[in-house]
Amino acid sequence: MNDEKQMILNMLKEGKITVEEASDLIEALGKNNRKNDNLTNKITGAVDNIIKKATDTIQSIDLDQTLDLSQFNIKGDYNTQKETRIDDEINHIEIDIVNGDIEIDRSDDNTIVISQSIWAKKADLNDFLDIEVKDDLLTISINENYKNIQASSDIRLSLGSNLYESLDINQVNGKVDISDVDFNNLDLNNVNGKILLINIKGAVNVNNVNGKIDVKNIFGPVDIENVNGPIYLYNISGEYADVSTVNGNIRVDGLSSEKLKAKSNAGNIRVFNIKNTKDIDLDSGFGNMVVDTTDFDGVIRANVESKAINITEKFANKIQDGKGYEISTSTEEPDLRIKIDSSFGKISLR
Questions:
Q1: pTM of the predicted model, to two decimals?
Q2: Which sequence spans correspond to the domains of the chain?
């Protein structure tokens, strides 16, 4: 991700510009990044003007009713469909598009199949996408000749192998759906779109602005950062899971990762079905938090800081300090350590 795009995303996270304004700037950046040597100065000036005029910040968005900005995709009068087949000797995949959904799944044979559906006000856009193979790298991006054409491109990528070294996606305004293919490293940077990841083994790194994130049946380290939108994790295992969102709830159901760290500035956090985890660290500024340890058989010790705490009888030992409580199910060495901190919300530990 280039410096200009990162600058825009940082300003969005800080609440200086709105989601719509960030999307407009990033789209403008993609259209003009090869036409003007002074683009950086123009983008910087545009951002400064937006800051002066902005009256809404990201904190005003409803926590769970995130904007589905896919409605702003440009749907033209003409639809171009094309299918491309590639011999699968690929280890690395890079995708960079604006306006359009991405779907990645397992192919029925040993080839890579790229299906594209282009909507625009111009017909016969068979070369709208640049699809290139160099050595073991596959890249998919928008053809430079069409940067100024308003269009949307939906891509389905069916992969022939079970395991790839890396997948790197940069996307603006569109959904991402990935299932049943393993990547040693999966990096996803998205603005305005829902994300669904299912049945993946490998390291998962997601940076998202505005959208719901669903992650199911993942084995490997998980890093997720969301600006606006909920994060749902189901059946997660591996070295660790580190998730955070500015505005949005976090729910974890089925936790076997050794460590879980979850933070939401203004949302609730709930953790259920804890299996083999050793360390849980939860932090919320204004949200409530629930940790259900019913399915955990070992000794638990927890440090809880909140103005309102509800603790079940399972935690027989309780010591109050100046900030909260240190509680445990036994005086023995703990198998699971929990730290929960909520500045203004309620905490329930059961």
A1: 0.78
A2: 3-60
